[in-house]
Amino acid sequence: MTITPPSLLSLTIDSALLHLSSFSDLSHIPDHILIDLFRRTLKAGKLNERILNLFIASGDDKLLSFIKELNIRPVYTPVLPTRNIKDDDVDIVIGALQSDLTSFMNAWKPIFSRFHLIIVKDPELKEDLKIPDGFDVKIYTKADMDKTAGASLTSQLFSGYSCRYFGYLVSNKKYVISIDDDCIPAKDDKGFQVDAVAQHLFNLAVPATPLFFNTLYDPFCKGADFVRGYPFSMREGVPCALSCGLWLNLADLDAPTQALKPEQRNTRYVDAVLTVPAKALMPLSGINIGFNRELLGPALFPGLKLTKEGKLRWETMEDVFSGMCVKVVCDHLKFGVKTGLPYVWREERGDAVQSLKKDWEGMKLMEDAVPFFESIKLPAEAVKAVDCLLEVAKLVKERFAAEKNSVFIQAADAMTEWVKLWKKVVPASN
Amino acid sequence: MTITPPSLLSLTIDSALLHLSSFSDLSHIPDHILIDLFRRTLKAGKLNERILNLFIASGDDKLLSFIKELNIRPVYTPVLPTRNIKDDDVDIVIGALQSDLTSFMNAWKPIFSRFHLIIVKDPELKEDLKIPDGFDVKIYTKADMDKTAGASLTSQLFSGYSCRYFGYLVSNKKYVISIDDDCIPAKDDKGFQVDAVAQHLFNLAVPATPLFFNTLYDPFCKGADFVRGYPFSMREGVPCALSCGLWLNLADLDAPTQALKPEQRNTRYVDAVLTVPAKALMPLSGINIGFNRELLGPALFPGLKLTKEGKLRWETMEDVFSGMCVKVVCDHLKFGVKTGLPYVWREERGDAVQSLKKDWEGMKLMEDAVPFFESIKLPAEAVKAVDCLLEVAKLVKERFAAEKNSVFIQAADAMTEWVKLWKKVVPASN
Q1: How many CB atoms lie within 10 A of CB B79?
Q2: Whole-number pLDDT of residue A74
């Protein structure tokens, strides 16, 4: 082993480089040393987002223009190119449950700013929305809902988290991406920020494989393929209608589980996308999803309201119920539903123990809903999502006819109203 | 920022530490510096397996005794404790397709040496087996098979990869782990070696959840849980009967796919275990599996032989066919099948293009087998794996009766013979 005799300054910089991760301030370092340190950091492959921010925070003009010269920006994990999806084919729909969206929007700026945004304000939210500049955004409020759906239907369908469904209705794009306003971009297992929109679009653009499970997950991901034994006739797959993303930090648990394990956080980054097999049901979460609006139509629907539900995710079941309906419809129409990547980072919101005091109905609800959705079979004549939805609503009413005030009957009524409204607003769906 | 003035030696060592990953020889460094460098490597959290081997390779006595003193050994990724599984409850079954198992066994030594091993020699393999010392191993050869099953059944059931099924038969343990002899331990996404046996036993020891899909994968993994909407009545899960592990490097592709993409290697480490939903079929691979022998009995069976199959994994379908059968049996008996972790590292073996010249029947076979397995329903009276197997054999014969020389009919005959043999050798299964 030979080590070329180094200068003291060079060794000092080496040593600084070695300990860079423990520094929190570089502002006292002379600028020529700072630039040298930055160069060596780059060369050592040690420049990550945190370190970049540390250098930027030094405020050193020469360094800043050097960084600009090199065209260094925060890095997003590359996703395979999304075959033929134009930015114009996409709407990002955000339901605004809080009035100040500044930090949410700024966190998503590098990802969202290419796309058209639909922000739907919870009709029960009083304050004006605060939305930063720099976005191509259309805002919808209670006035728009009242005009389109009428005041009574608005309060039935679009309050709380359900406000985003109004965005699904008025969008006229092929693809919709929807992310809750308490989520920011997540980082992957290598520390890179995840472009959740690109991943959803990729999931939607490549086929799904619901008819046979591939043990190496999505066979269309880079480096993956179909495993020995996978039937060749099924390798073409089916169109993907829905992409369900996941959550780091606060996982999407129900109130009892969250209350039982208040310290539990999801830290496991599972680098996979998979198609949920046909006939299998899963708990869809509306927190972070993308869907093909041309295929799904109104299949994601609002309407299931728990009697004592509030404005916290773990108090709602509208997305889970509608998710089982969507899965049944997709199985019937031979579309795929994917789950896995992309992750978003969920911030804390609310108090699970307080929610528990509301005598949470969600637990009991699923015990009836799951066997029902497992048992139903849609008629062959139902070849469009709108027809399938009306069939499901009919079956729900038959099954739960004995329970006059059941949340299911109310949901089925809301579903029917919703489909009527959809057919009126989206003539192409008929 | 303050940097304490360092000595030149200290700076030199810092610099060496920084470049450690590019060194390949430390043998010329004086031993006091070597020990100091080792200490700092430890302190900087930079000691990984490669670096440890680099230090060990220096051959420096003082350093070696220092390493011994600190009780530093190669690290294996920790897996949650496997509730109540004793080492004595486990057999590791290896089918020997090559005579020299030295490097295979040595690679697995830290993982295998705690357990009883059953090594079954391919009856067509002529040379004597070479097995290193240090294992608790029982070897079975053609003579043992002939004695137990008769010469004709031996050649029908136990040649090539199928020899390992003889190990499943003669084991008298609750759990069997089986890994192909061209696999060595894999490393996880953090660079730690994976203890595949511990992971299989964990998968088998905790419940499976085939009745409803959990979007955060195995809810029993550390840090995971059931997602909002998961029915509470299903959270207890069902017993897990089978754990299917995966493969890094050479993935388990079929001959046509492997021939088409000769450079393709699986590098994606997906940190998840999941239960394959009920009613969904998947391509089981026998390369890296663990199962509960008390629950599955003879459900993993040899017998499906392609006319031109050779001694390469991509030429065989016995495991895929038997996997579909096992899945149907598990769905019927309400047992779970898991897939995902653990990974093994598969070495190269054979030439896919040569295999292709054999007019590979596997492709066509699955087109008939999948719809068949999807359609069958086992009678309620079949409450044990042995009964289920005999029912499946009967249904195969009915379905493929028109095809006299079909591989399916031969497989059904072999299945029946296998169950007869199992009932004779394992009286408890009756």
Answers
A1: 20
A2: 55
Beta carbons of A327 and A284 less than 8 angstroms apart: yes
Q: Which amino acid, residue B2?
A: T
SS3 at position A205: helix
**pLDDT tens-digit series, residues B27-62:** 777 777 888 888 888 887 777 777 887 787 777 888
- Answer yes or no: is the ipTM higher than 0.95: no
Amino acid (1-letter code) at residue A117: L
Measured from the Cβ of residue B104, the count of other Cβ atoms closer than 10 Å reads 22
Residues of A in contact with B251 (CB under 8 A): 216, 225, 227
The pLDDT, as a whole number, for residue A75 is 55
Is B209 buried (19+), middle (13-18) or exposed (0-12) by CB count in 10 A? buried
- Report the residue from A14, A225, A231 with minimal CB separation from B15: A14
Which two tokens mark B409? 């009919």
Residue B264 near chain A (CB below 8 Å):
yes
Taking the model in full, what pTM does it have? Answer: 0.82
Question: Which residues of chain B lie closer than 8 angstroms to A339, CB-CB?
Answer: 213, 215
Query: Residue B404 CA to chain centroid, in angstroms?
Result: 35
Decide if B340 contacts B270 (C-beta within 8 A). Answer: yes
Question: What are the Cα distances from residue B239, in Å, to B201, B218, B275, B331?
Answer: 13, 13, 11, 11
Q: Between A282, A367, A370, which is nearest B215 by CB?
A: A282
B chain contacts of residue A320, beta-carbon cutoff 8 Å:
228-229
Mean pLDDT over the full length of chain A: 90
- Mutate which of B37, B227, B250, B289 to test chain A, going by most A C-beta atoms within 10 A? B227
Q: Do A229 and B314 touch (CB under 8 A)?
A: no
Q: How far is A224 from chain B (nearest CA, A)?
A: 7
Among A130, A117, A171, A128, which Cα is nearest to A148's? A171
Name the residue facing B28 among A1, A257, A283 (closest C-beta): A1
Instruction: Tell me the nearest-neighbour CA distance from B265 into chain A, angstroms.
Output: 7
Q: What is the pLDDT of residues B335-391, one digit of tens each?
A: 999 999 999 999 877 777 777 777 677 888 899 999 999 999 999 999 999 999 999
Structural contact between residues B49 and B26, judged by C-beta atoms closer than 8 angstroms: no
**CA angle at residue B340 from B338 to B343, to 5 degrees?**
130
Position B341: which residue type? L
